[in-house]
Amino acid sequence: MMEVKKDTILVASIKRRKKQTNKEGKTIMSLSDAVAKSFSVSHSGIFGVDEKSMLEILVKWQPEHLSTFRNETSSIFLKDERFPFEKCEEILLKFLKREFKRFKDAVVQWTMHPWERDARMARKALKRGRQAYGLLIELACTRSSDELLGARRAYQSLYSESIEEDVASQVDGIERQLLVALVSSYRYDGSKTNDRAIKLDTQKLEKSISIGDKKQLIKDEEIVRILTTRSKIHLMAVIKCYQETFNKNIIEDLDEESSLKDTIYCLCDPPQYFSKILDSATKANANKNEKEALTRVIVTRANVDMKDIAEEYDRQYKTPLAQKIEDVALGNYKDFLVTLVQRALPKGSD
């Protein structure tokens, strides 16, 4: 809350200075517009900075302009109590560091080998703990069997440990069994299915869900076995059979069990899952983990299923994904992400 409040004060301070009419005031006013556009997140959830606007203005500034700006911007610069200088607010420094870094992170992730990229993401998720377990589910369930195996190999090479042992030793809670099984999985990727197996799995899932403790379903052996070993095409058939046989949606039956819901979405309907992740990332009140997903999803899915994700996002939220990024991002970061989205769409699409 403090971060939003400070950035909102910054915008208010900039608007107040628009009343300045002298030459120096107009110069400050020009930079103020750039600051408002490039630095402030306010309540709109801005990502990145407008490097071009900042460059055009900042290089023209003389020392006296900088001095005047610091003195006129009390919401950013504070008078030192002991010595004659203005010191920058720590919150602005942290904000600038984070927003300048977004473009760099996007470029690094884009150029990195997918195995290494996923391995490093998994490592980061484990360090962050329970709040990032969803990322482990995403990595384990939206990659092919060979891609997940590659990430596991890269993890061993980078950290001299296996991702399986790290998940088993570092995840402390009821999610452990599911997460270990997911990252260890090597699913059949073919198109063949067995109707009898589909019906049996459907019945076992319904039984476990109907008689089990809703808060403990993530530990149910049958549910974990089915979700972590069966092929994706098999699971999609099971979900369909569940709906047709019992006239109810398995997602709704899972009630509050978000980890199992995320697992099913990632395995059976990645475009819908990623659309929801992107929507959460671009909300004004998104947290750090949610905001990072904007870069992650666009970069990692650009050459996979971005067309399907963009179409699903448009269908769900009635806004083209590229336009949404235009609305919430700035500068090189915005241009990079928009380009990755647009290159996956048919020519003529927004």
In short:
One of its GO terms (molecular function) is calcium ion binding. The chain has 350 residues and is mainly alpha-helical.
Could you please describe the fold and organization of this structure?
Residues 1-25 and 36-44 have low confidence and may be disordered. The protein is built from 20 helices and two strands. α2 runs antiparallel to α3 (51-58), α6 crosses α8 (145-159) and α16 (270-281) packs across α17. It has a two-stranded antiparallel ribbon. It is 69% helix and 2% strand. The chain has 350 residues and is mostly helical. It has three domains: 30-88, no CATH class; 113-268, Annexin (Annexin V, domain 1, Orthogonal Bundle), CATH 1.10.220.10; 271-344, Annexin V, domain 1. It holds the Pfam family Annexin. GO terms for molecular function: calcium ion binding; calcium-dependent phospholipid binding. InterPro entries: Annexin (IPR001464), Annexin_repeat (IPR018502), Annexin_sf (IPR037104). This is Annexin D4. One of its GO terms (biological process) is response to stress.
SSE topology:
Layout: H1 2-16, H2 23-38, H3 51-58, H4 63-72, E1 77-79, E2 86-88, H5 90-111, H6 114-128, H7 133-141, H8 145-159, H9 163-170, H10 176-184, H11 195-211, H12 221-229, H13 232-246, H14 250-253, H15 258-268, H16 270-281, H17 288-301, H18 306-317, H19 321-328, H20 331-342
Antiparallel strand pairs: 1-2
Helix pairs in contact: 1-2, 2-3, 5-17, 5-20, 6-7, 6-8, 6-9, 7-10, 7-15, 9-10, 10-12, 11-13, 15-16, 16-17, 16-18, 19-20
